[in-house]
Amino acid sequence: MAVSDIDIFDRLRLIRSPNVGPISYRQLIARFGTASAALEALPDLAARVGGRKLTAAGPEAIHREIEYLARVGGHYLFINDADYPALLGELENAPPVLTYKGNIALATQINVAMVGARNASAAGCRMARNIAQELGQRDIVVTSGLARGIDAAAHQGALATGTIAVIAGGIDAVYPPEHTELQERVAAEGLLLAEMPPGTEPRARHFPYRNRIIAGLSAGTVVVEAIPKSGSLITARLAGEAGREVMAIPGSPLDPRSRGCNQLIREGATLVQDAGEIAELIAPLDQRVRSKPSAQPHFDFIAEAGDGERNAIFELLSPNFAAVDELVRLSGMPSAQVQMVLLELELAGRLERGAGARVRLTA
C-alpha cells in the first residue's frame, strides 16, 4: 500500500463513517488534507445544517475489520495506490477503497466488461464464453459481476487468460450460492473485487454500486443478452456516461432477451459480433488504462459558506434530483461554496447523491 499504516486506519474510519460516501470522502480529503483532520471536522460540518451529531466509525470496529479481512485472505486497495485502476479512478464516485483477492495486476490491464441476462439462452452463454476466451487471447481482461447466465459464462471463458469479478457483498460473501466454486477459482486464478466491507451480505441496493465499478473499470461494456430495464442496461448506461464504449450483440426480435441489446443499438450502441470488433473499438483507450490514476476528478474547496449561502442552496433543492451545475447557475454562487453546502447536507443525512452529478433532499 502506498499510504502509511496510520493513514490507512484513518482512511478506513472516514469511509466507514455514517453519511460519508465516495464523493464526500474525496471532498473531505481535498478540503482538509488528511483523513485524520477530516474525521475531526465531521461533527461540526453536519451540525452547520441542523444535522444530528455525527460520530465517526469507532477504532474498535476498524481493528476488527482489518483483522477479519486478513483472516479471510483479503487485501485493501486505496484510490491513491499505484495498482488502483486508472479508468476507475476517473469516476467522480470512484470507490475510495476496495478489497480484493487474487492477482491485482489484472486491474491495471486493459479490460472489457461483459454482462447480460441471468436467464440467458444456451446460445448466448456459448457466445459470451467464446468471445471472452478470444478476448483473453488478445491480452484483454474480461470483467463481469459473477451473476448467473452471461456473467458466469464470460468468467468461465476468460479464466485461463485473466478475468475480474466484481461482487455486490463483502469479499467473503458468495452469491449466488451455486457459484461458490467459480468464485473461488476467480479469486485463485483471476481477481475478485468488492466495495462493501468484509462480512456484508449482498442486498438489492448494493448491485447498482457494483455495476458502476464494472463499467468504470472497463474500456468498454458488451451486452450479450438483456431484457429492457435490466441491470445490464444500467451497466451499459453507466459506461456511456463515463465516456466508454458501449457495445451490444444483436438478436432475434422474437426473443425478449434480445430486446435490450437491440434497444441499445437503436439508441447508439455499437453493434459487435466478435472479439476482433470489440478489440478494435477499445484500442484508443489503451494508453489511458496503462497510465497512472493522475486524472482523478479534482475537488477544490477553498470557500466556506455562510448561513445565507446555505439557505439559498436549500431553497433550490427538493425531493427531485437536480444537477449540481444547475444549482451553481441558479444560485450565482461559486462552485466551491455550492459543493461545500452539499457536503454539509450529505454529512447531516439530508442529501442523497444520484448518478450524473445530481442531488436531492432525502425524505
From TrEMBL:
Residues 76-281 form the Smf/DprA SLOG domain. SUPFAM superfamilies: MCP/YpsA-like (SSF102405). InterPro entries: DprA (IPR003488), DprA_WH (IPR041614), DrpA_SLOG (IPR057666), WH-like_DNA-bd_sf (IPR036388). It comes from the Bacteria. GO terms for biological process: DNA-mediated transformation. It holds the Pfam family DNA_processg_A. Transmembrane segments: none annotated. Residues 304-356 form the DprA winged helix domain. Belongs to the DprA/Smf family. This is DNA-protecting protein DprA. It comes from Sphingorhabdus pulchriflava.
